[in-house]
Design brief:
alpha/beta; three-stranded parallel beta sheet; two-stranded parallel sheet; globular; binds NADP nicotinamide-adenine-dinucleotide phosphate
């Protein structure tokens, strides 16, 4: 399961995981993103989680995912944790859906689920170098050019407005010295 699948974290996660042979289910709030995510390798594309936002969350729900890459947090992550299969894990990096995590200990103590925190700001440089090397080899995303956008820094306001309005997909690199 990859949540926030059209975002910067999500698109790269879908691309890498599909390239490694995983059956990726992509969760997105963008109704027109199905073809793009399928082209990156998503096996199926579903809406945001939980599917019924009004229904209460259960401590343990039907087990659906072997693992998850989550950049959304909040109620979405709480649902994902309750629906990870025995022994699975969720790698958690973000908070676009909120900072509160309304979960219980049940997924951890009854299914052995692991919650893996991700922080890229203070990650040790030697481990970064190892990962960067792997990102050029076995973890190399196959479709980067399909979702990597470039803009001059003078267009930052428009890019940020698109992100805030939920219209932005993939990543946009801002050039600060007249590159783009
Ligand atoms: N911990 C770290 O080291 C680290 C590193 C990078 C990023 N981050 C964090 O990770 C998160 C994602 O970063 P990003 O660069 O991928 O951001 P992004 O490009 O803005 O993508 C976030 C995605 O989340 C989904 N989303 C937006 N609002 C939502 C909402 N209210 N409820 C549920 N889903 C929502 C959208 O995807 P869909 O429309 O497809 O649903 C959106 O594209 C951010 O919170 C960022 O700060 C953390």
């Amino acid at each position: 399961m990859v949540t926030g699948a059209t975002g910067g974290v999500g698109t790269v996660a879908v691309d890498i995981l599909a390239g490694l042979g995983f059956e990726v289910v992509a969760s997105t709030g963008k109704t027109d993103a199905g073809d793009r995510l399928a082209a990156l390798g998503a096996k199926s594309v579903i809406g945001r989680l939980p599917e019924d936002p009004e229904a209460g969350l259960r401590p343990l729900d039907k087990a659906r995912w072997a693992g998850a890459v989550d950049s959304v947090g909040g109620k979405s992550l709480a649902y994902v944790l309750s629906s990870i299969r025995y022994g699975g894990a969720a790698a958690v990096s973000g908070l676009t859906g909120g900072t509160a995590l309304p979960t219980t200990v049940m997924p951890f103590i009854l299914r052995g689920v692991a919650l893996l925190g991700i922080d890229s700001a203070h990650f040790a440089i030697d481990k970064r170098r190892e990962l960067w090397a792997r990102l050029g080899k076995d973890l190399k995303p196959q479709h980067l050019s399909d979702y990597e956008n470039y803009a001059p820094v003078t267009e930052a306001e428009q890019v940020l407005s698109a992100i805030r309005a939920g219209h932005h997909s993939g990543r946009t690199v801002l050039g600060v010295a007249g590159e783009f």
